[in-house]
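Side project, low priority. Logging it here so it doesn't get lost.
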Amino acid sequence: MKERPLLLVSILALSLACVALILGPTLLGS
């Protein structure tokens, strides 16, 4: 099986985007 670093990077990017969308307004609001 070949490793797919792009897949891992995309998953990490999506997770970071979700965290940014959730924590962003909270940090800016306070």
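Brief comment: The mean pLDDT is 90.
Revisit when time allows.
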